Amino acid sequence: MNDLTPDRDDRVAKLKGLGCSRKRVEDARFTQGKGNYVDDIKMPDMLHGDFVRSPYAHARVVSIDASAALALDGVVAVLTAKDLEPLGLHWMPTLAGDKQMVLADGKVLFQGQEVAYVVARNRYVAADAVELVEVEYEELEVLVDPFKALQSDVTLREDIAGETSGAHGERRHPNHIFLWEEGDKAATEQVIDSADVVAEEMIYYHRTHPCPLETCGCVASMDKVNGKLTLYGTFQAPHVVRTVASLLSGIEEHNIRVVSPDIGGGFGNKVGVYPGYVCSIVASIVTGKPVKWVEDRMDNLMATAFARDYWMKGRISATKDGKITALEAKVTADHGAFDACADPTKFPAGFFHICTGSYDIPVAYVGVDGVYTNKAPGGVAYRCSFRVTEAAYFIERMIEVLAIELGMDAAELRRINFIREDQFPYQSALGWEYDSGDYHTAWDKALAAVGYDGLRAEQAEQLAAFKRGETRKLMGIGLSFFTEIVGAGPVKNCDILGMGMFDSCEIRIHPTGSAIARLGTISQGQGHATTFAQILASEIGIPADSITIEEGDTDTAPYGLGTYGSRSTPVAGAATALAGRKIRAKAQMIAAYLLEVHDNDVEFDVDRFVVKGAPERFKTMAEIAYAAYHQAIPGVEPGLEAVSYYDPPNMTYPFGAYICVMDVDVDTGEAHIRQVYALDDCGTRINPMVIEGQVHGGLTEAYAIAMAQEMAYDDMGNCKTATLMDFFLPTTWETPHYTTDHTETPSPHHPIGAKGVGESPNVGGVPAFSNAVHDALRPFGLRQLHMPHDHWRIWKAANDLGLHD
Ligand code: MCN
Ligand code: CUM
């Protein structure tokens, strides 16, 4: 034993544990072209699949003639619904309890829908063959407006035309999917109808798309000799894909290996199950060869999971002095052709009923009508925490409208209605139990940081100058305070297709004191390999640099529900900490044996166990690991491994205060962002630098969504934004500068007090940008302007307000 005990602070620093801005270990390969994405996977004799897609949004498929395509040299097969039908795979179940056509079965319901699957020697031949497949269509009336769809005689989903109930209860119309309600309707109406002040508004959160840099794709490889199916793919939940693939194909689950390699951004786009996966598996089984399918950009934008498309009719009431008394939300949710939303099963509107936000609202009601239209299916996806983005936008707009109604400053209106620190754990009117928060401190810090009062004074001066004709720019101050809900979670009320939403971590300590930990989650850019090693480093005293984190291979990783809903830290992060504690408990027994004292006479200190009261007597974790494998210890099994499956008792409720200041040019419609301040509270911070990166990325997506990005359709159901010429993806040129800040209110139920953060900046960012636009034009009577606030729409709003007269 050496007595050159390094200084304790040095030992802590060497671990690079909790709170350390450790550099991302994955970046060496990402920045040097050494990532391994699905399209990098190449196998001998691999074939390539591509889809014939519908040019029409609603049409009957009269005939499909693949003879010319099949005659093309290099074409191996063309699959249609007829080929899949005998296998029962022409339709597939969706995550939302609906079913979806894998390949067009009699009709098509959205532009870009998969009609036939061409398998060829290479991608180029496949693309040529797609052009040669002759499909005859008979056009049908198109419904792109959910309100009209609910009035129409046209039945979109003929397959369920006669069914008066679906997975989520009664269907009131052939194009109606569900009505989902939460809260006390009668009491809410009664309070609002007799209130001093009521603000009412229709708020639309437009349809958009996650658009990750890497599109969706997979490689299916059926080994007919060994009966093993290997599926590589861009999956945010590989274990769920394995289970679903087994249930659908009848292949026993141990014979299926699902691997998510490096993923180039998911943002929710890669949670769902797509026809491309099913067709590739079938094609590999039929041909006996590996089959690769990778979307191009248009495929991705037109056909895979969209986001939002929520029409939210709100009413909010208050006393004359601004105390909110009730909130009502009646939502019309456009789900497109199939209800393929990725939510926990019991929540067809996700966690939208977090829409009372950060405010102590005594009574509330939410009713959400899901509707079929001739648009792409999917839904929820896009840094959303299961519809929390819509909820936060809704309440943060309603607060602004109420402030106008009350003639009150919107910052003050928020402050007097915040849930107070002493009210946590807080029971919301819509059924949530908020775990912890300190909103007033965060708000005051944010307002002070931007110099709120000074900004308002400057804004007033600029308005006066505008009115004097000295400037054509108006200043807007966009306020946003959000409460997130992440970490699904609790198995008792959160499942996906019956699979409870726990998560897992399995750790093996190697004899020489390094380790590997495997998790049920999968990083898509969030830096799990960096941050989960930090949790472990602090728990078990082995440096993060000596711990490999592995995810995404179902043959090796413990079963988990994957990465979305910012659940990795709240759930798998908790499992990691608890598995670490199991390692530590065993290490303690080994240390006590080696030090010849009783178990309770040693205690953990950073990277070692020391004898209580005798700090010079210790065993480092490396020494303990060695002994675990090389020394017979009475009553203790050899080895040092642990596994933890964690079912969280509650979700975590991160929150934040975001403020955006911009100048709106009423003549050009341009919005120049002056500053964006973002204060996040995600409880205990594992890696401040990674958190900042998450916030920057999410704010950039929020900026895009609020200011220009949308999935737009014309009346014929043509998708008008299926390329990056039309769909706005911000580059560094457009991206504003961000200032990040934080407070730290630990979660009381999470083993290390951490809450999720991955989606917070999108949830809080969109209202901040949007409210700034509204705030700039508010002196001229603007109450509500639908997003995205692109130059044209801002110009149009200014024009409508008479500012060009
Ligand atoms: N973190 C931390 N301290 C905390 C909370 C989180 O250091 N208190 C770190 C975590 O350890 C992790 C990262 O921040 O490295 C994000 O953690 P978490 O909030 O748990 O979210 P997930 O890992 O579950 O990621 C999912 C979330 C979602 S749902 C979307 S959508 C989104 C997002 O992450 N997609 C992303 N951020 C993304 N970032 C990238 N680069 N790519 C995506 O596709
Ligand atoms: Cu809602 S997008 Mo994320 O949960 O993968």
From TrEMBL:
Lineage: superkingdom: Bacteria
Uppermost EC category: oxidoreductase
Catalyzed chemical reaction(s): CO + a quinone + H2O = a quinol + CO2
EC number: 1.2.5.3
Single annotated GO MF: copper ion binding
Pfam families: Ald_Xan_dh_C (PF01315), MoCoBD_1 (PF02738), MoCoBD_2 (PF20256)
Keywords: Copper, Metal-binding, Molybdenum, Oxidoreductase
Listed transmembrane segments: none
Region (Disordered), start-end ranges: 740-759
Domain annotation Aldehyde oxidase/xanthine dehydrogenase a/b hammerhead: ranges: 32-141
UniProt key word Metal-binding: yes
Cofactor(s) needed for function: Cu(+); Mo-molybdopterin cytosine dinucleotide
InterPro entries cross-referenced by the UniProt entry: Ald_Oxase/Xan_DH_a/b (IPR000674), Ald_Oxase/Xan_DH_a/b_sf (IPR036856), Ald_Oxase/xanthine_DH-like (IPR016208), AldOxase/xan_DH_MoCoBD1 (IPR008274), AldOxase/xan_DH_MoCoBD2 (IPR046867), AldOxase/xan_DH_Mopterin-bd_sf (IPR037165), CO_Mo_DH_lsu (IPR012780)
Gene3D superfamilies reported for this sequence: Aldehyde oxidase/xanthine dehydrogenase, a/b hammerhead (3.90.1170.50), Aldehyde oxidase/xanthine dehydrogenase, molybdopterin binding domain (3.30.365.10)
Keyword Metal-binding carried by entry: yes
Stored SMART domains: Ald_Xan_dh_C
Subunit (UniProt): Dimer of heterotrimers. Each heterotrimer consists of a large, a medium and a small subunit.
Function: Catalyzes the oxidation of carbon monoxide to carbon dioxide.
Name this protein carries in UniProt: Carbon monoxide dehydrogenase large chain
Species annotation: Roseovarius lutimaris
